[in-house]
Amino acid sequence: MGKLASDERVAGAARQIIGDDPYVHQSRINYKPGFAGKGFNWHSDFETWHAEDGMPAMHAVSASLILTDNHEFNGPLMLIPGSHKKFVPCLGKRRKITTKARLKRKKWVCLALKRLPS
């Protein structure tokens, strides 16, 4: 992971976005075989990083390296335009439930989203 994260194609893109030298805060591999398994519900990475890890501000980059083309039919990454500039929380019916509690209960209560037209 370290070699991949320090590759200039990845680190250079992150540096350009955040305007500073990047470092790895977390790393993981989400193995998603084609046309099998379940997807991830909409979520905010920063919400967990802030609540659980103490990250004070949205000064971070998430990087995904895909091995095949992603299309609408095979699990694309969906983003909310502008969410990189303003925090968009996963609002649940019971806002007092912490992110940690939601993760333990596996209750994903998030905003309903519609795909934007092309």
From TrEMBL:
The record's listing under InterPro entries reads:
Phytyl_CoA_dOase-like
State the protein's name.
Answer: Uncharacterized protein
| Listed transmembrane segments | none
Looking up PANTHER family in the UniProt record yields:
ECTOINE DIOXYGENASE, PHYTANOYL-COA DIOXYGENASE DOMAIN CONTAINING 1
Organism of origin is: Vreelandella sulfidaeris
Spell out the coiled coil positions from the record.
none
**So which cofactors does this thing need?**
Fe(2+)
* Molecular function in Gene Ontology: 2-oxoglutarate-dependent dioxygenase activity; iron ion binding
